Amino acid sequence: MSQWDLETLYLDLASVKGKRLTPTEKKHLQGLLCGYSPTEIAEKLKKSRKGVEVDLCTTLYQYVKELVGNNNGKVENWRNIAEWLEDASYKRDFSLEYDASDSISAFIVVKRANIKIEKNQLMIDVNIR
After folding, report:
1. Which of 18, 26, 86, 97 could pair with 91 in a Cys bridge, judged by C-beta atoms 3.0 to 4.6 Å apart?
2. Which are the contacts of 8, defined by CB distance < 8 A and separation ≥ 6?
3. What is the DSSP letter of 4?
4. pLDDT tens digits along 119-129
5. d(CA 111, CA 72)
């Protein structure tokens, strides 16, 4: 979840909603942003699939549509939510800039990375899913 700016996203969605998101809405949103389908979210939260689908349709989908200015758009697929939010710049790019005697700049977009700089060597261990 670290690639998403959740604090800003929660605040902006709360502004659209008129009050803070509930813990359940946050869990559902996080599930969608992780790439889980409503069915998978329901399974992980031990809830009914239909209940999660109804919740998403009546809450988060509506908030996101308004937030990204797609009020007339239809959520044809749950994947639209993450795509719309990524297009609206709620997804962060991981970047590293390091200046030494020789200037090094790197731009990396990954799910998870461990970066070490030792004795003028840049070591990057990348895990891409």
Report:
1. 86
2. 90
3. B
4. 777 777 665 54
5. 32
